[in-house]
Design a protein that fits this description.
single chain; mainly alpha; 2 domains; two-stranded parallel sheet; 2 strands
């Protein structure tokens, strides 16, 4: 069975164009396919074709990942969504928490740790009820971690 090549061409061109635009930030590209064998084969072929200096593992700015996804299969969509959410949660919440925990012992009394991030984590995309949970004045670290575990 052969991949049709449309998605492959889109991912390849996106990776090449992004890498050639002198980006400051890495870009993760998710290649999706119904057939895991074909999808992984495409990723492997792209990894060979895009060497050197384009992929993150070669010092570049593009990270390629394969995700099994069949848009006609509700279970496949649910699984893909869970994988993406877990990946972003690991980076955007737990990654930040791990950095905080590593730096905290080094901070002098009355010192501060300041984290700067993009607008991607803004609360306005959440329901009003969930916004209120995040904005509670008495929300401590334990409560925040418990709240975030609901998204795992």
């Amino acid at each position: 069975m052969q991949n049709k090549g449309i998605g492959y061409a889109v991912v390849r061109n996106l990776a090449l164009n992004y890498a050639n635009s002198s980006p400051s930030q890495p870009l993760t590209i998710l290649l999706t396919a119904r057939n895991p064998t074909l999808g992984q084969s495409s990723i492997d072929k792209l990894r060979e074709e895009l060497k050197p200096n384009i992929l993150v593992e070669d010092g570049g700015k593009v990270d390629l990942k394969f995700l099994r996804l069949d848009i006609a299969d509700e279970q496949s969509i649910k699984e893909a969504k869970e994988i993406i959410e877990k990946d972003y949660l690991a980076t955007n919440f737990y990654g930040t928490l791990n950095v905080f925990n590593a730096l905290y012992p080094l901070v002098r009394p009355n010192g501060r740790i300041i984290n700067v991030s993009s607008k991607a984590g803004k609360l306005s995309v959440l329901s009003s009820a969930l916004q209120q949970e995040f904005l509670k004045e008495d929300l401590d670290m334990e409560g925040l971690i418990k709240l975030m575990k609901r998204f795992e």
